[in-house]
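#structure-requests
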Amino acid sequence: MSLPSLGMGSNSTLLDQSFNALRPSPPPGFLAKTQFNESIPLDPIRVYLVTISLMYGLSEQPWSSEVDLSKLLYVQSTGRNVEKTVAIITGMEAPGLQPGHVILALYESVLAMYSRRPGFYSVVVTVNLQGRYIGRVLMIAPYASQTMFDSQNRTILGDDMFKHTSSVTADSGVFVDPEDSRFRISWTFDGRSVPAQEIFSAVLDGIMTIAQYDIDVPCAYVTGVSFSGNVAFHVGRVDGQGLLCGQMSRVLLAIPHWIIMIERKFTEMDFTLEYAGRKIATGYILKVSSVASQNSNGTGQIAAS
């Protein structure tokens, strides 16, 4: 993935106007049906991380285009902890399956797992539109059913990319994007502990909300809220600086995978984004009681401007 440059998408009309959009509503006739297999438990953290990766990949495609599964990351997971591996397979069974459909289905399936408590089991999600079956999403433990890897039109995401060997953690640091060294996130863990599922479900909400827009659309801020409504993940541009939806999505991918999971710390945090030496945005992960005065409606939202 190449990060969009700050010069892309600069549009004076957009820059002179501002609008807010809540998390996307399913299109008319959209239905995602979940069928769980409770004989195959899944590791919750890996479910969240793999789902975040796939949603990020989908967010790079136009929300209402026909989904192109060939452009998504393909990983067949291996390693010592194979019993904890999670994979997602996305199949397009008929014309009409869109990135937005898959993102909505992924969000709803993880929400269903969270709500069942305990509910993190292998699941098949069938996607229907106006009564027509158009696709499916499978979250599985691949070692339990290797034959599922043989289907066509599939995208498989494993969790090997999330394994780290460092035993030393830090309270602050700087992340440099391996794909674009001009993109940097300075971060500080500071505050109360936050359950991992609260952080990661807020990330899912933020990515789903921002994915409605093309990656080169200028954005003012995005706030993702956890399933419980107790935690907010916020990214907002610095006045006078350009910030694009694609850059916001990259932040939502990078912080859980390359900061939180490496440091193995689940607390409130503050961070700053720089691109090519310019400070373009700031953000935080906080319990909602800490930000009630800043965000009053408790729903995922985005401002594009």
